[in-house]
């Protein structure tokens, strides 16, 4: 029976000798009454051992065990008095911390559960029969995340954090090679970034060799000002995103010419139907489109993707021209080599800038403006191309944290929550473990 209670309370690893231990259930709540064996104690002030037991104090500790019922430890704690210096102190124990209303095990299991980015403070509170405020207090007390050292390859990006605050986007720095967060700042604005980055020593900043960014001018400025030895690369995903947006505008402009303004898509013009129904042909990688028969409900038949593409491009010469120019850049993006791409890149820039398609003029200007940084994205490190794919995956987890909590008012808590959940090796401050 004694061992069963020890297992129930998860005290097996705490090396505790109990004088008495018993349990009772009252109104659906489990109470565990505990008194420790009398052990040798020393005065924390003078180190003396001439002690007497002054009295006993009863402590009530929340203790979350693997049961759906609330559990409390009623701990009868001895208080000793030192005859030499008159210091009064509690006996040593490994399951309760001073001035803490939760047991050590409860604190530990709460912190371990919060490692997951999919759980919220409220979820953990319900799981362990605690209040949400208690969970947040435990987290704030033990989780204080520090910036990790700057890596060789650094990714810059932002993540949407609040619609209520002036600072709507937080700035995230990620280690490209280790897939770990370096730090999170509250704002992506240039002046705030400058204040934060300038606090990092120049010697540490000079170790950064590559910085990967999207097309946010502030990031480029920060890279140029504070990371003198680093090459700046623009993530190719964002370049392709701009290209696809231009392609979508061209498709929509041509599609509207055939719009009969009907409520039913199938009752509309055949050209309109096909351009609307198979819009993804103009932005999706052709290799990723389904290779089997595809239904065309308006014609009550099935076509292959080759037949569908051939039909779509026959609708309008401008559309056909735009599609093949877009594909030419996509091929360049996928296959070009950093050391031998200048001539082909210059030709593509001219084709876009000189195109009679207005939608591609702007894309041509973007290519010209960011050319050296787009070219740098073709660099490969240990066979891996420079990109912000790493940080995009991390941002997805950050959004899950934000969505689950319905936003955070305390940015420091949000920052700690993000780093603690994503960098799994983040230490707990003042680890509440025996």
Descriptive account of the structure:
With 434 residues, the protein is α+β, with helices and mostly antiparallel strands. It has 3 domains: 2-103, no CATH class; 153-234 and 386-422, 2-Layer Sandwich (Nucleotidyltransferase, domain 5), CATH 3.30.420.10; 236-376. The protein is built from 15 helices and 14 strands. Strands 1, 2, 3, 4 and 5 form a 5-stranded mixed β-sheet that branches. Strand 1 (18-26) and strand 2 (29-36) form a beta hairpin. Helix 5 (190-198) packs parallel to helix 7 (217-226). The protein is elongated. The two termini are 24 Å apart. The mean pLDDT is 90.
Features:
Nucleotidyltransferase, domain 5; 434 residues; alpha+beta; five-stranded mixed β-sheet; elongated; 15 helices
Short characterization:
The chain contains 15 helices and 14 strands.
Poorly predicted runs of 5 or more residues: none
- Summed up, the domain count is 3
Topology pattern, helix = H, strand = E: HEEEEEHHHEEEHHEHEHHEEHHHHEEHH
Q: What best-fitting shape do the alpha-carbon axes yield?
A: elongated
Number of beta-strand segments: 14
Strand content: 15-25%
Cα radius of gyration in angstroms: 32 Å
Number of helices: 15
Largest β sheet strand count, sense and barrel closure: 5 strands, mixed
N-to-C CA distance: 24 Å
